[in-house]
Amino acid sequence: MRKNYIHIMVGSVLFLLLTASFGWAAMGEVQNFTFHGIGPEDVLGPGENATPDGKPDASFSLNLSGIGGALSGISLQSENGGSSWDTVAGNGIPGMQVKESGGKVIAESGGGMSLTPFLMGMGITFIVPDDGSIAGGGKFTVTARFVDGSESHSTISIPGTAKAVSPTAGDVEIVYARMTGKGTRDLTGRNKRLRGDGTADYGIQAVLQGTGTLTGVTVRSIEGKSAQWDTFTNSNSWLVVVMQSDKVLNKPDGSMDMQLRGKSVLDLLVTDNGAIANGKSRFEVSFTFSDGAVAARVVETEGPSSSEGTFSGSAVLSGSGTRDLAGKNEHRRGSGTNDWKVDLKVNTPGTLNGMKIENTSGSAGHWDTIPGNGRWLIVATEPNGNILNRSDGSVLIAISRETELGLWIEDNGSLGDRDVVSRITLMYDDGRTLSKEIVCRIGTDRPDRPDRGKRQDGRREVSFSGPRQASSSDYVGARERIGPDGSFDWLFEFQITGKGQVEAIMVESIGTSSGVWDTVPGNGNWALGVVLPGKGGKGLLNNYDGSVSFEVPPNHNLQVFLEDNGSLRQGASNFRISVTWSDGTVTTATS
């Protein structure tokens, strides 16, 4: 008797939880209602026919939020009421297929919907047979109905030229889309802002071929844990950052408007909600264009990342050369001093559309052929001396057999250091990025430069302490903003020993967290404010564009201020500070 009583009580409590309405509010709320295009799925026919009819179906997704309840039905209706779809069987209204985020079907066309409990929220995808109204465009409203009789609605606008989704949209084809795993960049967070949160982003690389105006990107899970990211300002999904050749293509509000021509290699960065790391989800990436066309492709998760592997060939640093083709900038012109040369041999066929050289240990150094990112230029030449760079510094070099190239770079003061190890990366136009360590022909002792970290000619050295949060100072903001933004900065106490003119300062987070701040304008790194403190101090030494140029002495004791990108309040503690002098040498210190 007591056991039956307990069963009755438990059943009563569950019934009350499922049917209670809190102050007439709906049991759940529809969020992130999104149209994903027409096709490539074809599983439904007209009316309540649950069999393919040779015509691609229209695909949608949404998220439900709420403290808990049970979903009893879904319907979709055009603005004029002329077209409707629902999950009620036998009522003469065309049906839909509905799946929860795990891929389980909870409603079949013509079969009705089973009562589906949810706690704190759930993700849903559904498809409907298009009667022509969706392709024709207009406003469509989805309605979620709950067991207590409450409802929640959301309306979206679909372009009038919506087309069937496939790997091809108009004149643009998705060549491939592939997961590249957790990277080193931190540009996104759990929101729509173009700003890091202290955790490295996950990446997807996509290669598109063709001509069109790209206006939006969406990444969503199609199996496993519910997840969605996009570039649309009217959605509540987290942001997708879209990059090409290390340059962010999103506008400040996260949206996009980019002209594609030829082959385009795009890197998509997102903050994982757990769906990627758990390894049990599959994803689809879709690209929306200005004419309403949508191209979609399932993201490959198996096999090696396109960024893995080495190229066949060799790279040798041969020391200071006999030509002056590069300088301390991105311009294809000399600086008055001979460049250092890397002798490159490549046997891996394809078309190179970019190269970069990075110091992977020891002092900082980065050179490349990517226009507009502020890095010093690599000038590439044929064995006969012909320069292969285009006017903006970029390259497009066909490799069909073993090819020898000379790569010329301006020494930033690090190339002669015996503790520096450098690596070259070749970027192919099909998305491959292949690397190899550079061998030093001039010997491990590298007599041209003193050891990094020791005083140069007995005079130059830097040291620092911090970071700590300032109690009242606000000199810089996010990204490259010089000037207050309403939040207190973080700061390092910074000391310089020696004499000379300082041309740039950089702070790098070199631990598990990521972040780069510097005084070089226009390179995408976050701003670094340099302050001469104390009595007689002049405040910011930065120019209006964020750059610096000052003498030491008298500016021995300084403070450098930066905006937290999310890593500092999370306890980041390993940093490298680099000072670039007017003679090209670089002095560094690490913590």
SSE order and pairing:
Layout: H1 2-19, E1 29-38, E2 58-65, E3 69-78, E4 84-86, E5 97-100, E6 105-108, E7 112-113, E8 116-118, E9 121-128, H2 133-136, E10 138-146, E11 151-158, E12 168-169, E13 172-182, E14 202-210, E15 212-223, E16 228-230, E17 238-239, E18 241-244, E19 247-248, E20 258-260, E21 263-270, E22 282-289, E23 294-298, E24 313-320, E25 340-346, E26 350-361, E27 366-368, E28 376-377, E29 379-381, E30 397-399, E31 403-409, E32 421-428, E33 433-437, E34 439-440, E35 461-469, E36 490-497, E37 500-509, E38 516-518, E39 526-527, E40 529-532, E41 539-540, E42 550-552, E43 557-562, E44 575-581, E45 586-590
Parallel strand pairs: 16-17, 24-34, 27-28, 38-39
Antiparallel strand pairs: 1-2, 2-9, 3-4, 3-8, 3-10, 5-6, 5-9, 6-7, 10-11, 12-13, 13-14, 14-21, 15-16, 15-20, 15-22, 18-19, 18-21, 22-23, 24-25, 25-31, 26-27, 26-30, 26-32, 29-31, 32-33, 35-36, 36-43, 37-38, 37-42, 37-44, 40-41, 40-43, 44-45
